């Protein structure tokens, strides 16, 4: 099993959860999806996230899906599992289950019920008690949670959380926050942790890498975009990183539309052969004929631009 620690970098792809056309969990398609991601060079997988329809799964389905992903990955990359929950009994139970199945660590976001800095910090003190020595990722995603975490409170959490090894930075706008947290680590004000970014399929990825991010933890139907952009940036070819990113940006932007984004991603992954069905569990969107025409046009233009870039 790969370690999940503060040295994490690259692309931890947020995966979808495949279902059959009838809505059942599709474990055979899960294998296809894992293979698809690993073949495109991701350095980790993150499952049961917001775009993974985690809230639509039963507890047993969540465990079965985790087991399948871990077994298929066979130790080639770390597997991080979302275990966010307002209640600590459920969080602790799921964490113990997925770690026993071979997960590398877990990811936790604050519940919408915490608002002040003291409430947020107190919540994560209880997260530490619940998770014990399990390595975990702090997810800062105010668009989804409604919780605004300032740099000061994030640094406070990191100082109080010896087993928090990563910040998943998803605030928007958030470049100044990323810079402040990285600077604090560089100055020794707090231990350095991995920072992976998740903003809308990586919509600010090149800029975030320039601000000190170690990579990306998000989803997109073309995971190779993030892999290639991160690699080019790490290799010092920042202009190449921006050129590649720009080629994918129109489709990445389209995939981030509120309401239909997950359906777009699953449709594209189905088209690419990564999953057998584009089914989204209820409540979920359906794509119109106009949506599909838009997507086809964007894919054609993306292919053309990538060919031009070589």
TrEMBL record:
Positions that bind pyruvate: 217
One cellular component term (GO) for this entry is: cytosol
Q: Which GO terms describe its molecular function?
A: 4-hydroxy-tetrahydrodipicolinate synthase activity
This protein's UniProt keywords: Lyase
Record Pfam families: DHDPS
UniProt similarity note: Belongs to the DapA family.
Protein's name according to its UniProt entry: Dihydrodipicolinate synthase family protein
Naturally occurring in which organism (per UniProt): Ramlibacter henchirensis
